[in-house]
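Might I ask for a little of your time on a matter of protein folding? The record follows directly beneath this note:
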Amino acid sequence: MQVLIIGYVWPEPNSSAAGRRMMDLIEVFQRRGAAVTFASAAQRGEHSVDLEAQGVASQDIALNCSSFDRFVSDLNPSVVVFDRFFTEEQFAWRVERSCESALRILDTEDLHCLRHARHQALKQGREVQRSDLFSEIAQREIAAIWRCDISLIISEYEINLLQECYGVAPDILHYLPLLSTLRDIDSRQWPGFAEREHCVVIGNFRHAPNWDAVQYLRAYIWPKIRKTLPNVECHVYGAYPPPKALQLHNEKLGFLIKGWAKSAVDVVSSARLCLAPLRFGAGQKGKLLEAMGCGTPSVTSDIGAEAMSGDMPWSGAVINGAPLFSEQFADEFASAALRLYQNENDWQLAQAKGKNLISSRYVRDVYLPRFMSRVDTLLEDLSAHRQSHFNSIMLRQQTLKSHQYMSQWIEAKARLSALDGDVS
């Protein structure tokens, strides 16, 4: 089996949950004996993983360039994975033309349209309305889901939203949650309550919900915590902190911007508490899953914990953000953090709940084989699967043509500009 993954960025498993998830997908295909090629038009970041060391071929590709056609035709993959809907928009028409029989998988990461709707509502100081869910981004994202043979969804909440709000067919959706990076959780190796100190915040600064949460924590929550615990520090880790984030560093307040963590497990395991006052976003949160895997209780918002615990109790505290993250939210968040930080019994109970959650809902050896089985079933009779969804056929025929013509126009325009430059 030849698998091509087209990425918006090169995977950085030590920088984001998206990077760790991508390595999970690569691993499951390799377990199946597949040859995996990862291609991206992005520049490689300073924290990009060494794919060749993982047995993965890598290929630099260009947007709006026919060189991709030759590349994908020569590779002739049987499976193509797009890691975001805009990657599908840019390259799916070329995949369709060069290897139509390839199984097309969209890994949504999270629903961008849901995150966008919540962000817009927050900025406007109001609750999310149904009309917010029908934005241009939503139309593009849902169209990409329909055009692909199957889409991977990390949140049960989002699966329900896709079916009930957008009318997406259930059999083109597949639930594949984030998975614990700690294969064998041995709680005996976790540092105890007395061995840990300080609070930790972790998350890529390029992800808007993370940056918003850090600002909100610094302005409205941390001063309340620090007032009661003047010697406790908040250590903020994340890749690519912008200058405005570094300006939040304040030794006197104990709010310390640490930047990229080489080992997220080490810094989270040494903290007594993980803080994540997320005010918007979507999907499951890798930072909170990692905290549970490190035995570190967390305090977060209802958006932060969304679709992560099911009917099971949370590993710490979940604070309701309604109405619009008022002063009451900040007070309740700080109060929960103080209780867990100071009360060893409550902290240990929260830790145990996290271990139960990981063991019940995020088991790699359950979800990865289930996904691979779904891939095998689709490959056995892909034509029948496609013919059962007229909406998919229609959207591929209509919208991919428009993407094709736009891309070819951009490429032709670039060539003409280059010729004009040569003449001058």
The longest helix spans residues 390-423. The chain has a mean pLDDT of 93.
